[in-house]
Amino acid sequence: xxxxxxxxxxxxxxxxxxxxxxxxxxxxxxxxxxxxxxxxxxxxxxxxxxxxxxxxxxxxxxxxxxxxxxxxxxxxxxxxxxxxxxxxxxxxxxxxxxxxxxxxxxxxxxxxxxxxxxxxxxxxxxxxxxxxxxxxxxxxxxxxxxxxxxxxxxxxxxxxxxxxxxxxxxxxxxxxxxxxxxxxxxxxxxxxxxxxxxxxxxxxxxxxxxxxxxxxxxxxxxxxxxxxxxxxxxxxxxxxxxxxxxxxxxxxxxxxxxxxxxxxxxxxxxxxxxxxxxxxxxxxxxxxxxxxxxxxxxxxxxxxxxxxxxxxxxxxxxxxxxxxxxxxxxxxxxxxxxxxxxxxxxxxxxxxxxxxxxxxxxxxxxxx
Length: 368
Hints:
By secondary structure, the chain is α+β, with helices and mostly antiparallel strands. It has three domains: about 25-145, Sandwich (Immunoglobulin-like), CATH 2.60.40; about 150-205 and about 330-365, no CATH class; about 220-325, Immunoglobulin-like. The protein has four helices and 15 strands. It has helices at about 1-25, 145-175, 180-195, 330-365; strands at about 30-35, 50-55, 65-75, 90-100, 105-110, 115-125, 135-145, 220-225, 230-235, 245-255, 265-270, 275-285, 290-295, 300-310, 315-325. The protein has a seven-stranded antiparallel beta sheet with strand order 1-2-5-12-11-14-15, with no helix packed on it. Strands 4-3-6-7 form a four-stranded antiparallel beta sheet, with no helix packed on it. The longest helix is centred in the last third of the chain and has 36 residues, at about 330-365. It is elongated and about 100 Å long. The N and C termini lie far apart (about 115 Å).
C-alpha cells in the first residue's frame, strides 16, 4: 500500500508539472504580410514590390524587439521555357538577420523576373524575453510578366510561325524536281529559325560588365567624416559581386571614442544605368552594427546608400558609395531550352505548312 501511494504521488507530480509547462508555454508570435503596392500591377525589372512585415504577440500588440531572419527566394526554374533572366531563377535575393523594433520591418524590392517569389521569416525572442515563442512564417507573391513583353512575344511568335508555315507550304507544293526552288525554301526556313535564336545580348546582366571582363576588386571600407562626434562605416568584404550570388556588407556607427552607438539603419541599392532604386529596407541595431546579404541582379554600376539615426535623434548620417557588379552569361541549360523550344515550334510550323502544301498539290494533280 505504501509503495502504491508513492507511485501515485509521483504520477500526480509528473502530471502537474506537465500541465504547468503547457500552461506557461509562450504562444507563437503573429506575422502578417501587408503589401503596399498591388501585386497585380508590378512589372518585373520596373516596378517595386513594397511590403511591411508586421510582428505582434498573441494579443495583437506590436513586439517591442525581435530577432528576425528574413529570406527572399526568386521563382524556380521552369521546365520548358526560361525567363529572360535565368541566372537568378531559384536563387536567394537576400538572406539576412536583423533586429526589428516596434514590430515593423519594411522591404522594397524590384522583382527581376516573373513567377512566384517566396518570403521566409523566422522570428526569435531576444535575451530573456518570454512573451512569445520562436515562430516561422512564409508568404508567396505571384508577379506576372510585363504586358509590353507579352505583346512583343505574341508579335514575334506570329511572325516566326507565319514565315515557317509559309516556307513549309511552298516546300510542299513544289515538285521534287525543282531543287532550286526547294533550296531557296530551305534557306528561307533556316533564316526564319535564325530570327528566333536567343542572342547572347539577351541575357540580362551582360550588357555592361559581362563574362570575360575582369573587374577590379570591389572590396573596400568607406567612412563618413566625423559629425557631432559620430561617423558611419560601411565595409564591403565581397571582392567581386556577381549576378546570381549574395554579396555581404557590414555597417557600424561609432562615436569619437570608436564605441558602437545604437541606431536605426536604412539601406538602399540603386541601379545607376536606369536610375531605379531596386532595394530598400530598414532595421534597428541595438549593438550599433548592421549586417546584410543581398544580391545585385544586374551586371552594371550600383549605388549603395546607408542612413543612420543615432538613438532617438531626428538628424541622420548618410553614406554613399558605388560598386561595379559582374554580369553572368545565361546557363547552358537555359540556352538549350530556349533553342529547343524555338526549334520545335519552327519544325511544327514547317511540318504543318508542308502538309497543307502536299494536300493542295495532290488536289491539283487529281483535278488535272
